[in-house]
């Protein structure tokens, strides 16, 4: 802290000391008193003023340090603020306490609304799955194979979009829904791929699964969520091409020979709602899948990188931690 800041705040004290010294000298001069004694009194005033300012500066610096520490931790600000020393400081503290209570009230209301929204979306997703299942059964009885395949594909998309909506609400509090453990990577990958079998067939896209890690340290449910988003994009933009999933140790890679991503779009593919040039080709693109994928990856301490070249394909790599990461 610059001492000039303190001196500016205590300018009134310095002016008072100077006026006191000047008053002593003026009284001694007008009263024909001993000027030697007057200068001695001025020296005493100066000495006491310096002692007071030095002590006050030490207290001032300590209080300022506590204020700055409180500012760095807003959640604990109310507890960390130094006790008010003057009536004005008490008034400011009263205002801050009132604002803090209002903020807590608003946050509590926001959290309650968020919980209500999540409960509604959860209920809605479970309810919508009933007619989807019914439509799937009806579609299974159709004799027209092409129409049957088209309907089942669209039903699969509807089901994925409803699940995506649910995960979107849960992602805000994902930390409370993470269970880190080792799981069979090959089994998890094949389970995800199986869901997209009709899409691979419809897009005439081949799939190859190479060598995979023996196991992965992560949350299997959220791992599957990330992989499904990546596979979904790979199949969507790789008509008649190939998608390859492989990895080793802590690394998993999904490669495709699709249309690729433009260089100017790459830095923004994880932005919420951003669809880029490819999104203009597919009007149904929402720009939410990869956004959520990155959010999940950060929560799981997974490093995700994307390499792509227009016309040649895209490679997405997931690097998993080799130990549980804690804050």
Structural class assignment: alpha+beta
User: What percentage of residues falls in helices of 4 or more residues?
Assistant: 55-70%
User: What is the percentage of strand-forming residues?
Assistant: 5-15%
C-alpha termini separation: 31 Å
CATH class of one domain equals Alpha Beta
Short description:
With 327 residues, the protein is α+β, with helices and mostly antiparallel strands.
Structural description of this entry:
By secondary structure, the chain is of the alpha+beta class. Among the domains are: 3-82; 183-327, 2-Layer Sandwich (Heat Shock Protein 90), CATH 3.30.565. It is 61% helix and 12% strand. The chain contains 11 helices and 7 strands. Strands 2-4-5-7-6 form a 5-stranded mixed β-sheet, covered by helices on one side. It has a two-stranded antiparallel sheet with strand order 1-3. Strand 4 (242-248) and strand 5 form a beta hairpin. Helix 2 runs antiparallel to helix 3 (35-72), helix 5 runs antiparallel to helix 6 and helix 9 runs antiparallel to helix 11. It is elongated and about 125 Å long. 17% of the residues are buried. The model has no long low-confidence stretch (mean pLDDT 85).
């Amino acid at each position: 802290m610059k001492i000039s800041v303190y001196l500016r705040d205590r300018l009134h004290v310095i002016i008072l000391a100077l006026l006191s010294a000047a008053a002593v000298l003026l009284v001694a001069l007008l009263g024909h008193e001993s000027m030697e004694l007057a200068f001695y009194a001025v020296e005493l005033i100066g000495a006491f003023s310096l002692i007071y300012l030095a002590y006050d500066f030490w207290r001032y610096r300590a209080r300022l340090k506590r204020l700055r520490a409180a500012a760095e931790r807003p959640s604990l600000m109310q507890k960390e603020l130094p006790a008010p020393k003057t009536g004005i400081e008490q008034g400011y503290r009263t205002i801050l306490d009132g604002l803090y209570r209002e903020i807590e009230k608003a946050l509590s209301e926001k959290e309650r609304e968020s919980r209500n929204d999540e409960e509604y979306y959860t209920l809605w997703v479970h309810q919508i799955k009933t007619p989807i299942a019914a439509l799937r059964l009806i579609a299974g009885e159709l004799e027209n194979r092409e129409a049957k395949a088209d309907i089942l594909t669209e039903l699969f998309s509807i089901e994925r979009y409803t699940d995506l909506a649910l995960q979107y609400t849960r992602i805000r509090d994902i930390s409370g829904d993470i269970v880190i453990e080792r799981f069979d990577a090959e089994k998890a990958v094949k389970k995800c791929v199986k869901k997209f079998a009709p899409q691979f067939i419809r897009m005439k896209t081949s799939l190859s699964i190479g060598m995979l890690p023996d196991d992965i340290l992560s949350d299997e449910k959220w791992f599957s969520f990330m992989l499904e988003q990546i596979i979904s994009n790979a199949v969507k933009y790789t008509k008649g091409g190939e998608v390859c999933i492989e990895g080793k140790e802590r690394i998993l890679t999904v490669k495709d020979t699709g249309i690729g991503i433009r260089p100017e779009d790459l830095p923004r593919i994880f932005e919420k709602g951003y669809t880029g040039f490819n999104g203009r080709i597919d009007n149904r693109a929402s720009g939410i899948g990869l956004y959520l994928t990155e959010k999940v990856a950060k929560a799981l301490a997974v490093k995700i990188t994307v390499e792509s070249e227009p016309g040649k394909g895209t490679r997405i790599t997931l690097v998993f931690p080799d130990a549980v990461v804690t804050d």
